[in-house]
């Protein structure tokens, strides 16, 4: 596959993820997460917001010094002091990036920035120019892009590319976009901006309507080649697009989408566990890819299918994403095939069909009373059945 089809994975767990209320991490915790992201072959790690606090500065600096295989990035507003602080934190990075941003939507410019659009353009160009004097890799984000005017975005993007930004990020800051419309916006930007080919277009989607992954994939279909995302979808409010979902969608639908990433997908579950344990944010059981039930089958029909051919009910393997195995969970919806198969794994075989049927009917009675039947329950149940026979 040519490079044009490679989607750059930009992880912002340590910056936007950490902005999730209650998710703050110490420097050492951030370093552990960054090393895991590097091991997973994430292309860009946004390590923090250097000016936000002395601790965040130290985290960005420490990560920039310890990580050599991924590019390390610091966020900065389009302000001199922010940019200089980011540059200082990244001084010793093997590969560094300053990510500077300013809001471009009418509501943000009028009420938050209290600036005229022309002033915003001027400040953006000044920020990118200053950042480029400190580092050779600069990303520029148009905050609240999905509520910004297309003509204005074209104007500011053309200018910041001329000033040296090599990545242009289009955030759906408030999770307002819907896939078709968002894809249209990205397609228009790529087509209309005369120097668009000098930069990589990126997207950064929030999940307020549960559409962050869908919007990101739609944008990639329209020409974006960097996706900003977080482990477990951690992030402000309802979170950011989830890294594991983006990466596995691209991999699982490779033939249809024609895209690829450089991620070692077997490191996904270890990364998810680590982020969950350092932040104290549990992963919901039915979370795609990394939830405890993502590769578990309970119903008899599904279990029977998977035992005959895994792909009847699985579109990827548990091992692909770092689980040891898929799981057959025995409960009231389970069937004879899974019951017998689990007992065989535990070393118990049935001499006759009637012995199996007896044990299975006791199992169903128990399953009506218990959510999940464990191996110890099965062993006890079979020995009771045999004792009474
Ligand atoms: O959501 C957002 O707009 C951001 C930017 C700073 C990239 O996080
Ligand atoms: Zn964000």
UniProtKB/TrEMBL annotation:
Its EC number is 2.3.3.13. GO terms for biological process: L-leucine biosynthetic process. It comes from the Bacteria. Homodimer. Catalyzes the condensation of the acetyl group of acetyl-CoA with 3-methyl-2-oxobutanoate (2-ketoisovalerate) to form 3-carboxy-3-hydroxy-4-methylpentanoate (2-isopropylmalate). Belongs to the alpha-IPM synthase/homocitrate synthase family. LeuA type 1 subfamily. This is 2-isopropylmalate synthase. It comes from Neptuniibacter caesariensis.
């Amino acid at each position: 596959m040519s490079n044009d089809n490679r989607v750059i994975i930009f992880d912002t767990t340590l910056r936007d993820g950490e902005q999730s209320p209650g998710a703050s991490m110490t420097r050492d915790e951030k370093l552990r997460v960054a090393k895991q992201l590097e091991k997973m072959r994430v292309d860009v790690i946004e390590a923090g917001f250097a000016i936000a606090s002395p601790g965040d500065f130290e985290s960005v600096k420490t990560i920039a010094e310890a990580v050599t295989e991924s590019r390390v990035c610091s966020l900065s507003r389009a302000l001199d002091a922010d940019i200089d602080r980011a540059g200082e934190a990244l001084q010793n990075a093997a590969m560094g990036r300053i990510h500077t941003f300013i809001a471009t939507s009418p509501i943000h410019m009028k009420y938050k920035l209290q600036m005229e659009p022309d002033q915003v353009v001027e400040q953006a160009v000044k920020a990118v120019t200053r950042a480029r004097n400190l580092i050779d890799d600069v990303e520029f984000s148009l905050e609240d892009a999905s509520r910004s005017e297309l003509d204005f975005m074209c104007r500011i993007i053309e200018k910041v590319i001329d000033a040296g930004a090599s990545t242009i990020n289009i955030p759906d800051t408030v999770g307002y976009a819907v896939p078709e419309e968002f894809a249209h916006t990205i397609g228009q930007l790529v087509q209309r901006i005369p120097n668009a080919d000098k930069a990589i277009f990126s997207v950064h989607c929030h999940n307020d309507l549960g559409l962050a992954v869908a919007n990101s994939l739609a944008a990639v279909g329209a020409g974006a080649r960097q996706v900003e995302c977080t482990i477990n979808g951690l992030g402000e409010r309802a979170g950011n697009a989830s890294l594991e979902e983006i990466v596995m969608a691209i991999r699982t639908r490779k033939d249809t989408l024609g895209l690829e990433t450089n991620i070692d997908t077997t490191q996904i579950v270890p990364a998810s566990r680590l982020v969950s344990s350092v932040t104290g944010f549990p992963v919901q059981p039915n979370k795609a890819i990394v939830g405890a039930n993502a590769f578990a089958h309970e119903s008899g029909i599904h279990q029977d299918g998977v035992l005959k051919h895994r792909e009847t009910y699985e579109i990827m393997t548990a091992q692909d994403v770092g689980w040891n195995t898929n799981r057959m969970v025995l409960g009231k919806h389970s069937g004879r095939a899974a019951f017998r198969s689990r007992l065989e794994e535990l070393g118990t075989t049935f001499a006759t069909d009637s012995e199996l049927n007896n044990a299975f009917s006791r199992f169903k009675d128990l399953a009506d009373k218990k959510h999940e039947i464990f191996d110890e329950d099965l062993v006890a149940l079979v020995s009771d059945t045999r004792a009474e026979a």
